[in-house]
Amino acid sequence: MQDIALFPLQSVLLPGGLLPLRIFEPRYLDLIGRCLRHNEIFGVVLIRTGGETDSHVSTEPLGTSARIIDFQSMPDGVLGVLCRGERRFRICERSQQSDGLNRASVEWLPEIAPAPVPPQFQPLVQLLRQGLASLTHSQRFLEPHYEDAGWVSYRLGEMLPLEPAQLQRLLQLDDPSARLQALVPLIEGTETG
């Protein structure tokens, strides 16, 4: 188990995915400063009840660790941060610092070894390539792995107009082929809708 800071959000970060954040609260400015100085990670978890600026929130028990890969001061004085999702974790115990920062003891879920995209899902790889080609700005931060079913399933999930609860269900699936299978009807629904 490892103790990490939590960043509860109304969105889901998937492993390998990119998450832009606008940081203005003192507790999160301190966290980002610490992460930058010591190359630390923090955990992103989906909020069940409460808001992103609330100290006390209820979250999903499963989240993704995030590492800062870029940052800049925004014209409005807010700190802009770009994070990449790394590993999935399950929350075991929660605590809260005096400044309102949520922390948790987490257990890391087993990392899924890269697996080839099954033949029946190869058309989804082409669809993903086309979709990512249109993302000129953030694409330079992506590390493509089109041959890996896990990476492909996560990126497809991010591209679709899914609700956070749907993305959370994808995050909870261990099997990349099951994730791809779950996405097929959603993709077909967006093509006909």
CATH superfamily of the largest domain: LON domain-like
Shape designation: globular
Measured between the Cα atoms of the first and last residue, the distance is 44 Å
Instruction: Indicate the mean pLDDT.
Output: 89
Number of DSSP strand runs: 7
Q: Which strand order spans the largest sheet, edge to edge or round the barrel?
A: 1-3-5-6-7
**Broad CATH class of the largest domain:** Mainly Beta
Class based on secondary structure composition and strand pairing: alpha+beta
> What is the total domain count?
2
Strand content bin? 25-35%
Radius of gyration, CA atoms, in whole angstroms: 17 Å
Uncertain regions: pLDDT < 50 for 5+ in a row?
none
Tally of separate helices: 6
By CATH, the topology of the largest domain is: Archaeosine Trna-guanine Transglycosylase, Chain: A, domain 4
Percent of residues in helical segments? 25-40%
